[in-house]
Every structure is written in structure tokens, then in C-alpha cells.
Design brief:
Blueprint: H1 2-13, E1 29-34, H2 44-51, E2 65-68, H3 74-84, H4 92-99, E3 107-108, H5 112-121, E4 125-130, E5 138-144
Parallel strand pairs: 2-3, 2-4
Antiparallel strand pairs: 1-4, 1-5
Amino acid sequence: MHGFRAFIVLLCAAGLAGAAPPCPAEEAIAVVAQRSSPLHSLPLETLKLVYLRKLLLDSNGNRWIPLNLPSSHELRQAFSLALFKKLPEEQESFWNEQYFQGINPPQVLASEEAVLRFVAITPGAIGYVRLRNVDDRVKVVKTLANAEDN
């Protein structure tokens, strides 16, 4: 886990990432909800439970709809490290067990823009994007830094 992060940081520092966006390890990750959501902030432990599908309803009884990016997406990997201290592929056995208990993992959307669009129009949806990509369609309920900051 730490070797992977070190590799990414070295890759970025060496300029080998080419025209790729700045490395997520150095960027804040914004957890976003619908602009009209009564939610103002989200404790880290609650966020973990929502993404593990162990907390299905918010305090008002509304269904949580957590969203992920594809497991190979660099922001998904940074989010997983920041929240769970694990890469997405390290959680596969957990989700295999959950599936057989009738619990599906969070829905996967293809891009940060797709997350923003879905969250903006879907009550209960929660997702994550780079902080610099947040706009007035959504509101930030939690900010995560890199995995060392948690």
C-alpha cells in the first residue's frame, strides 16, 4: 500500500505522468451531496459506513446512494486509500462476501463529471471529485486529503 503511494508520488515528481492531471495524492478530495441536501457535514466514520453499505439510511430515513469511480481510476484509488487505507482491489473479497448476503457495492460512474451530474439531481446521492472540480451544482460535505492525513 505505501509502496504504491510512493511509486505514484515518484512518478509525478519525475514528470513521468505526462499530461495527466495532477496526482490525487497531492490534491484534496471533495465528498459531495446534492445542493439542496440538509446535510452540512459528514463525519469520517459515517462516510466509511455509507461506502461499506453498513449504513443505508441517513438520519431523516432517506436512502444513501454512494457513488464510486472505476477501480482503476486514480481518484478512486486515492479515495480508497484516504478512507479505508486500502486500494479498491484489496476490498474485492469484502464485496464478494457482501454480494452473497444481498448487499451490492456502491454504484460506479465513469467520470467525475458523471458523479457531479448524478449527485446534482439525485436526493441521497453522495460521491467524490477533486476539490477543484466542485461547482455550484453540489455542495461539499467532507474534504479528504491524502492517506497520510487521516
